[in-house]
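Reopening closed ticket. The problem is back. First fold of the pair:
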Amino acid sequence: MFRWRGLVSSSVNLNCFKQSNIIVRRVLSSAIMSDKFNLPARYGTGEKSVWVEYIQLAAEYKPAVNLGQGFPDYHAPDHVTKALAEITVGENPLLNQYTRGFGHPRLVQNLAKLYSPLIGRELDPLNEIIVTSGAYEALFSAILGHVDEGDEVIVIEPFFDCYEFMIRSAGGVPKFIPLTPKSTEGQMTSSDWVLNENDLTSLFNSRTKMLILNTPHNPLGKVFTAQELETIANLCKKHNVLCLSDEVYEWMVYKPHKHIRIATLPGMWERTITIGSAGKTFSVTGWKTGWAYGPANLMRNLQVVHQNCVYTCCTPIQEAVARSFEIEMARYNTPDCYFFSLARELVSKRDYLVKVLKENGFNPTIPDGGYFIIADWTNLEKKIDLKSEPDKYKDYRFTKKFAKEAGVLTIPPSAFYSEEHKHLGENFARFCFIKKDENLALTEKLLKEWNAKKN
């Protein structure tokens, strides 16, 4: 009996040993597999973007008002949406099939008709314009198509967060320079945020390949002046640098300010790629249709990237955008033209939200363009306990706590700065004002109620 028990015991031990070996092999195999399939180094550590994080925040806490993401919460012009509806069920079946890879013919022809007089030269629709999957892809194709390993790219801060990621993905080296306010006291406008010319000049050298310009600017709403653009242009020409001009908010400029396209400055056409957006132009951000235009030799690089990742964009949407341009160009010099009526509509929304923010403890920067307001929240710091939020940067802690307590979602601007300059955005929150009047009124109600509770 004793010997039988010994055999059983040995058998159990052997089985345990085998099981342990199997587990060890699986763990080692998993570790090897895991290492092999790590995210490539060029994509960093794969951090969530601010958009992913704050969409998740909105879904979890359901704030009453979303002034975070930059899109309208009301309808686009009727003719724009009706065009798409008609096209998808229309008589021409080919309008639901693939179209020309570099841009639907009707759309690129209309883009050429629109921009040729604005830039003072005849655009070749087939070689100097490309239609992309949103302005986002236009940026991607321009950066990946022109930036090589070790090339330096000058980025003006704050910046749309994808700029840095795309530069690094291309093997480039971003060089950052912040716009800073002349003064933090009293009423500020976006014109008060300026570049230090000496610091800007010092960034240019033989390794500089590109400068990214964003005017009108997100999130400040700055509309760069002729003098500021000339300074940038002269440096680009002196050092043989490409200018990538992100002008998606080109129609949202408030009087007396005027949008100047840097490609129109002397000697800049041959070194400028300009980016536009149907989503911003016609208030249909979900259509994800953008474009870029510039000299054919520069556009060729974008075509190569585009044809090997996106290849072609949505045909019925391109057709609808093309038809929408035809309607607006036919009434270009009238008050009804959406290119100009949109800005008039947004002025009152901007002014209303500025007033609401001032009355509730914020110090907003009044934007000269775009549809965002950057507002200093530090006067409210004693009213809100940020210790419960674990984030590293104060603006993340404030915007999250504020969304939970006041029911108003905003975006932390430090997301639009490099690591070394994130402190410059920590005292601000970004508010979007292209929203229904009733939602802006609800924002006022919620802010007053929140302040009353804190007094």
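Second fold of the pair, where the issue appears:
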Amino acid sequence: MAPITQDGQTYEYDLVVIGGGSGGLACAKEAAQLGAKVAVLDFVKPTPLGTKWGLGGTCVNVGCIPKKLMHQASLLGEAIHDSKAYGWELEKPEKINWTKLTESVQNHIKSVNWVTRVDLRDKKVEYINGLGYFKDNHNVHVVMKNKKERTLNSKYVVIACGGRPKYPDIPGAQEYGITSDDIFSLDREPGKTLVVGCGYIGLECAGFLKGLGYESTILVRSIVLRGFDRQLSDMIKLSMEEKGVVFHMGSKPQAVEKLDDGKLLVKWTFNEKPEEVHEEIYDTVLFAIGRYALVDDMHLAKAGVNVIEGKVDVDINSKTNVDNIYAVGDVLYKKPELTPVAINAGRIIARHLFNNSDEVMDYDDVATTVFSPLEYGCVGLSEEKAIERHGADNIEVYHAYYKPTEFFVPQRSIRYCYLKAIAIKGGDEKIVGMHFLGPVAGEIIQGFAAALKAGITMKILKNTVGIHPTVAEEFTRLMITKSSGLDPTPATCCS
């Protein structure tokens, strides 16, 4: 293909995307479909343990996909236990084969890696397995896996480098600890595990490990699920404690030491008494204390791109402070770090650049789900944010406990099955937040997310006929408000 000449300048490519994760791939493929000449760079530095993976980014390889599969494996174990109450006679005891599980998960991931590469080829996107960094705002230098080097000249560049898990600055953390980058392909049973950190990644890992039969303990520096609704976050903690997960609140790790038998001695302190050092022996220590964007390797200063608190800020068109450089995904400053967000934003960038689209990414009211043992799905504002934005006197919270029908026969705990809708007082009561704690929360909240984006009100919700018996119908039965002081616990499944 001949060089591209635009605005008096000649370029080798229309677009170079640095990063082969969800957002970068979506942008690259959409741009190619619109006629652009596109190259996408992707390179994975091994973890301290040596773990590495293929094309597709965090979600496919060490994030959403393997996490959901591990979560499903955990739920299947619980279902096997429940099945006895339903009359199933099982001869063998329930025990997970960790090697078989990880092999199955990794085989699926590798198939997705392969399909992704084929898709790029079919869409005429050039894939380069190399680490890219800026020489200036139009030139990206690449050090490829085979150690060869080349420079790509492009009219536009999209930064989609993503991020990686942090390690604490304590002795033994990187030498003996692992992160979510390692757990899904770990070549041994995790055994008794300490999870350090209590965001959604920490909760999910501790949750599925416990469900798979491994002892799980979480060190929590301050609060559970920072940034989420406080009431629901606390209820998740209580539901996990009910299942046997141990939480050490207000704690901080101090050191990890490897013993002669290969086990790990972990020392930690509590915030209230930092002079007292506690210790316990574990088989695995998993750090989930947050993530950092991979900006340091990219030489952003050479391209003139500003970095704020380790992230890249963009305008409503996802453009950085440099006119021809855009950014998408987990590298963004104060934007949701979610795969569907990155995919949508990536496609919008491509349409903006190569199809004159004036569409912009809407980062408000993005639904999400925490795949804890009892799942938590939410969309819109937390109760705290609603009060902050609209004032306590101007919101009404409708809430209820409920009883999933499938929980009755095996007598599973329903103590924390709960939901609420946060509405603005007056008129038809516009809903600004919906929260659901219970089975298949992600499947349920997705539909209500579309309703919330469309402006659903409590009047509409109350006039919606539910599908019985489902847990999703509980949203259509919300009648009791917190301000009324009435008991939100139903007498029966049909009350």
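Update: turned out to be a display glitch only; the data is intact. The CA atoms of residues 380 and 433 lie 4 Å apart. The chain has 14 helices and 23 strands. Please close again.
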